[in-house]
């Protein structure tokens, strides 16, 4: 790769093959000719995939607080050592706790530094109800200070949605913000046909499965039963409280209605697994974090030709608020969710029409092939290529 700019992406908390970091950004940059390195938790020292050179900063393991914090610090220290050794032209950070590392790199090298803000971090900290309120407030204040420093020091801030971009522009006075959405790869999702009318599941949710999503689902499933209707649900992805969830499913007598699969599904198999259902389901609660973040899975459902039932929250309205490819309902309103689900399950023609409209929107605009051009343009601007 003689003559190629060397760039380094860094995360000490994400999985090695994270969809945004590896499959979207790093893979696209490597394909564009950049010598692309990714520092990430990895069980082996190094490997290469799709032209991306991965280097281990440690492993993600024991979650007991004291040991977890100690290992997290070790991963950050290893990331700093590898970052300096690689001597890159540009460093791209993916975790807010790496902002101090970025400030150090900015002060001690001539490299460009980007912070990729995946979500509203201060709002997310306020949702950590397992922490005392005073601790949450202190951490949120400290996070805001770090993000303000990043906004005013780094060469660019990347966000995954316009809500967080607006936060950086208004609150943190960032001088360069670029929004790069997590839209789906056309070649990965469009090769799958729309779900069949006899698909084994009625509804599907994939990705990280938090307790509050499941609590809404249980309430909706029970609302459907009260009306003499039943739906078959598929949940698959990381479930931090899988034991509680399975026990709750059995306690409520929903074991014949809800399948919960907490096993990791490889990136290239996600689309085929999702289309085992007729309808996408996104039960986001009305919390501060979700006033800014767009659910990535919405566009994956659309790409697969599936209508979606989701919470009526501001970030999603510009994309599906007209009701042509999704039904938006008040958050946490189990009866409204049940109404929407019954309407779609009872009308295959409506499902097909809404699914076709969603797929057309993804093909035209909401896809990674188009979105990646903004990433490549930013790199070209910062590196002068």
TrEMBL record:
Transmembrane segments: none annotated. CDD domains: GT4_WbuB-like. Keywords: Transferase. InterPro entries: Glyco_trans_1, Glyco_trans_4-like_N. It comes from the Bacteria. The keyword Transferase applies. The keyword Iron-sulfur does not apply. Residues 208-360 form the Glycosyl transferase family domain. One of its GO terms (molecular function) is glycosyltransferase activity. Residues 22-182 form the Glycosyltransferase subfamily 4-like N-terminal domain. This is Glycosyl transferase group 1. The lineage of its organism: Bacteria, Bacillati, Chloroflexota, Chloroflexia, Chloroflexales.
